Amino acid sequence: MWRVANPYTTNLPLTDLTYSLASGGSTFIDGKVTPTGSIPARGKKIIQIPATVPFRSLLAALKSIKPGAVVPYAAQFKIGVCVSSANTYGTDETTSHSTRLPKGINQVAGYDG
């Protein structure tokens, strides 16, 4: 999920959304969706992102990280909105976070980190 704010006095119809998640320079999720609805005037909307995590890609991105380690990751989003009948506008946001890898991850089949 991604929360989007609209500071303007008019609704902004959504046109498209691209996203990616990466860790250590390796992207393990990316995609594009066509969201429905609008971001309300001077309001917020939560957009659901139907992403599937390909387990092999995730493990490859985390290969050098040991169980229990803190894993940094970056999320990038680009959203398109319709500002007039002939114009669309895109804005992007990148945010960085971290999470702790479970200590039992080495017991998962296919993980050899």
What does this protein structure show overall?
The chain is 6% helix and 50% strand. By secondary structure, the chain is mostly beta strands. The protein is elongated. The two termini are 29 Å apart. The mean pLDDT is 80.
Outline:
The chain has one helix at 55-61; strands at 2-5, 12-23, 26-33, 38-39, 44-47, 70-82, 88-100.
Cα-atom radius of gyration: 17 Å
Order of helices and strands: EEEEEHEE
Kindly state the mean pLDDT as a whole number? 80
The helix tally amounts to 1
List the uncertain runs: none
How does the helix and strand content classify structurally? mainly beta
What sort of overall outline do the alpha carbons produce when their principal axes are compared? Answer: elongated
User: What is the tally of beta strands?
Assistant: 7
Fold blueprint:
Elements: E1 2-5, E2 12-23, E3 26-33, E4 38-39, E5 44-47, H1 55-61, E6 70-82, E7 88-100
Antiparallel strand pairs: 1-5, 2-3, 2-4, 2-6, 6-7
Task: Give a quick set of tags describing it.
single chain; 113 residues; mainly beta; five-stranded antiparallel β-sheet; two-stranded antiparallel ribbon; 1 helix; 7 strands; 50% strand
